[in-house]
Amino acid sequence: MSKISKFFKGGGSAASKGRGGPSPQEALARLRETEEMLSKKQEYLETRIERELAIARQHGTKNKRAALQALKRKKRYEKQLNQIDGTLSTIEFQREALENSHTNTEVLKNMGYAAKAMKKVHENMDLNKIDDLMQDITEQQDVAQEISDAISNRAGFGDEFDEDELLAELEELEQEELNKGMRDVRLPSVPSTSLPSRPGKWPACHFTFLMIKPLSTRKRAEDEDEMKKLAAWAS
């Protein structure tokens, strides 16, 4: 059995003595009081050492006996001071160990409470029922996913039409619109007179032709009227 097990479980005469011992809080309080008392004793000894040094300097070689007695007292005070330093170190170590032990005891106690609480909670739980419940949850999640997939699908709307036929119809409509646009376009009329072959002044003969052509046409009409009148008279 380890020392920790003996400390918590108890055993033999140590356990019987521990039952009537002080609590960790009381022991820590006593140790702190002892540390405070020794610290005050340190301050006192340091003051005495400084005083004895002053006495030794004051007498010096003039009164060697008094100076030597002061130095001897200083040595005793220094020895006591060193002992107090060692005692304080031991008490400090013991106090820290007791504080850690008390902390560990409280931690283990709380962990024990938590373990009991967990055990009480798990008493009403059946692993078989938990497995069945998780299986039901998984199945319902699968069903919900199937329903979501079914709702999100297009449900076959428009699948009965052939896409190639629709594209062909669309091309026909576009061609009709194109033909209609071509019919609405008006081209400029072709001029009745011929244009000059090259830019520049028109030849004089062209102007003459333009001036003469209306006169010859009028004379031809008059001749035709005369011929009609002669033919009527002759008949």
From TrEMBL:
Keyword entries, A-Z: Coiled coil, Cytoplasm, Endosome, Membrane, Protein transport, Transport
Family: Belongs to the SNF7 family.
Keyword Ribonucleoprotein: no
Cellular component, GO annotation: cytoplasmic side of plasma membrane; cytosol; ESCRT III complex; late endosome membrane; multivesicular body
InterPro entries, alphabetized: Snf7_fam
Pfam family, one: Snf7
Protein's membrane topology: Peripheral membrane protein
Subcellular location: Cytoplasm, Cytosol; Late endosome membrane
UniProt KW Cytoplasm keyword: yes
Location of the region described as Disordered in the Swiss-Prot/TrEMBL record: 1-25
Protein name: CHM4C protein
GO terms for biological process, alphabetical: late endosome to vacuole transport via multivesicular body sorting pathway; protein transport; vesicle budding from membrane
Taxonomy, superkingdom: Eukaryota
UniProt biased composition (Gly residues): 9-21
Protein's organism: Pardalotus punctatus
